[in-house]
């Protein structure tokens, strides 16, 4: 299934020189994860206040790109430099869900006419990550399949920020956009659960 997540290996290769520098100055995988969570909080705060200053909408595409980099590097740091721990795994999984909530929450302010779809989007995003984590419980392998995984949701939110910054009027289409995203989230969750069960 098509997903931006499939670009991750190339993205990680691009980040390898930076990862080496961070390791040499003593940065750990867990510190990178905490940085990602804190960045997500800042993105959410900026997004919430973007109505009064449109340039803050750019916190979505710029911030989410940096967050994707941090998310890629914490796993690489843990694997490459023997920093894998249960505490780190727990922080990573909880951090992803908490970060998504920080970033998605302001949609409740900007998309009030379709607030029920926004709530469904946030809830299904959490369930989608939970389904991926259940894969490790059931079959021993964490599932990341799309078509609406974490990276795909980040792309959608980044695009939302760019269109909003340039004052593109897409409000007439948001009900369809979020409806499609919700269907893709349901499909992603089904695929993850199905693949986990087949791998047993």
Oligomeric grouping of the chains: single chain
**How many domains would you count in the coordinates?**
1
Q: How are helices and strands ordered from N to C?
A: HHHHHHHH
Largest sheet: none
- Reported by name, the CATH topology is Four Helix Bundle (Hemerythrin (Met), subunit A)
The structure class reads mainly alpha
Estimate the global geometry from the Cα principal axes.
Answer: globular
The CA-CA distance between the termini, in Å, is 21 Å
Spans of at least 5 consecutive residues whose pLDDT stays below 50 are: none
> Count the helices. How many?
8
Provide a concise account of the structure shown:
The protein has about 200 residues and is mainly α. It is about 75% helix and about 0% strand.
Explained architecture:
The chain is mostly helical and 200 residues long. It has a single domain (4-198), classed as Up-down Bundle (Four Helix Bundle (Hemerythrin (Met), subunit A)), CATH 1.20.120. Helix content is 74%, strand content 0%. The chain contains 8 helices and no strands. It has helices at residues 8-24, 29-48, 59-80, 86-104, 107-110, 115-139, 150-165, 174-198. The mean pLDDT is 92.
